[in-house]
Amino acid sequence: MSDKRKAILDSALVLFTERGFHGTPTSLIASEAGVATGTLFHYFGTKENLIGELYLEIKREAGKIMREGTTGKDVLSDLKLVASNYVSWGIKNPEKIKFMEQFCLSPYVPDATRGEAISNFLFLAEIFEAGIESGEIKPLPVELAIKMSAEFLNGIIAYITGEGQGRDAEEIFDLAYPVLEDGLRTG
Amino acid sequence: MSDKRKAILDSALVLFTERGFHGTPTSLIASEAGVATGTLFHYFGTKENLIGELYLEIKREAGKIMREGTTGKDVLSDLKLVASNYVSWGIKNPEKIKFMEQFCLSPYVPDATRGEAISNFLFLAEIFEAGIESGEIKPLPVELAIKMSAEFLNGIIAYITGEGQGRDAEEIFDLAYPVLEDGLRTG
Amino acid sequence: MSDKRKAILDSALVLFTERGFHGTPTSLIASEAGVATGTLFHYFGTKENLIGELYLEIKREAGKIMREGTTGKDVLSDLKLVASNYVSWGIKNPEKIKFMEQFCLSPYVPDATRGEAISNFLFLAEIFEAGIESGEIKPLPVELAIKMSAEFLNGIIAYITGEGQGRDAEEIFDLAYPVLEDGLRTG
Amino acid sequence: MSDKRKAILDSALVLFTERGFHGTPTSLIASEAGVATGTLFHYFGTKENLIGELYLEIKREAGKIMREGTTGKDVLSDLKLVASNYVSWGIKNPEKIKFMEQFCLSPYVPDATRGEAISNFLFLAEIFEAGIESGEIKPLPVELAIKMSAEFLNGIIAYITGEGQGRDAEEIFDLAYPVLEDGLRTG
DNA sequence: AATGAATGAGTTTTCATTCAT
DNA sequence: TATGAATGAAAACTCATTCAT
Questions:
Q1: Fewer beta carbons within 10 angstroms: which end of chain D, N or C?
Q2: Chain D residue closest to C107 (CA)?
């Protein structure tokens, strides 16, 4: 991928989260990226397309990071690893978390793009299904379990990057994660 | 509160969640509310101020609704009631939930306003503190517990208003809430 | 019709003929008209719509002027009067002639608008039909006769406003018109 | 002349008449011609120069075609031949006619170029002068006679390529031309 | 209090042109 | 010769805000 394309995506990420989609002029994205405005449109065609590509890129990265190290053998330890991967990544990339939260629901990301992004998280459904089948996890609708868990982890990240700043992130995770695990586990 | 003021807030809520802040012209808010553009500025001064007032109004309502029926006597039952109140309200007012999620993090709501809104949720800290002190709830930083729980409930609402549409809301809540309760409860 | 609207149409006429459609920025039209850019869009919505309205206005005026004084009794004298009216008007309004010639064929005027404009010239067909029926005019397809005559008159106007400048317009018309009349008349 | 140069001129002719000068990007002309944008500028230097060269090319062709077969012996038959040549060529090359009509008056063709083009039509003045001198043609200012006649013929072409489509072109010409001839001829 | 015409700064996007390859 | 990525000035159009009524 071209250097300029990458620089544009980087600037866009920061500026969109700081100032919102319509609050960020394309001219500002371009100048922060050190390229001409025309170059932005050369690579992305429209501003909407730019945010769409950025959205996909981040979702792809998040999905990839979360899966790292999972074995498919033990549901609960896979789940903890996925959560830990996600929280670690989220703490290191707070703008990406902020971006996902702001633009998951926002109208600026085309629906088609949103749909395309889901594929990166299908493995989560498999983990939950396995856990429910084996009786380790409470029998919940899988989509519900995913939604609750994901939001729960976002809550942890928000706390660590917000009020909890300065305290040890791992320590907080070790304090917080059992709440989710104990909640999901059967009796 | 004047009828026109109310009509403007109502239109703004719907339009901001559907189209974003900068994506919604004041002229459109005004025309949907059945008033002249000038009237919007007569009541709210600026567009920023309008979204700020809307934000406060909704946070105030959310706080009030959540507290309804709590006794301060039993932590776990108060907590469940608060959760249930919030979820019921959220299902009935999905635009308000969407608005809060979109604009909690967004740069359009002035920070001062965000601060002002927090006062509506101080009672939550009291409940958690009491629970931790009595040993009923795991010893967690209170703000962490609040953040995780709030996000968790948003996950439930998102599921009910999204994929879970058509299924009985109360039934889903009864399935999902124990996950949070079991998680927060000590051993 | 509002003063500002009229001023915008007047500037647009001059500038479009001098510089072409895409060669004329809306900002220039507005400033020449002594209004803000926004005002132009307030009245006309789009630049395309502006040229469309201008086109209709001019065609309407041309049609009205040409008909003035016709009686419907004598074909050849009606025809001469129409021609004379048109040429006189054309000499006094050379930008309108230039505008019609440039934008009759140009892609900037929407086809629908072009169609709408034709209604102003239906009376010409009636005159020619009457003349052909009475035997005074050669039996030609009416549309052909109109096209040839119209272009012929444009040739006269072009000459008078171009090379023939300074010479008496009426004298030139009296020299030129018989060519058309003798040509159309039966043997 | 290089193949690429010719391809560029061909694309430009079609696109300029269809979309106007400023409505046609150089990048589009190049891509339709199957060459890179840079190549267009390699051959023509600027867009203005491109339209100028195209204008000259067409005027040159028109002049050459019109003269074909004239003898200089009989004014009226030469005139008819010129007219017939022009109309035949115009019917076969409607984009060239459209181009000339649109850009004769337009500001995009530099005045110098327009002047240069006139030389191709000087022979017309000679024919008319001869006709007037011999008394065969009404004593008119030569430029006026040329303008009227040229426009008249354009009217015929417009009719044939427009409303008269499907009918025999020659037949229409034979119907229409006598109008011009009878008009120009003395008594 | 309520209106909506008018404003003009600011936005996204286009496109003639250049230049390193 | 020929290319096409990169440029940035300039365009059409939008919209928060004002103000005379």
A1: C
A2: D19
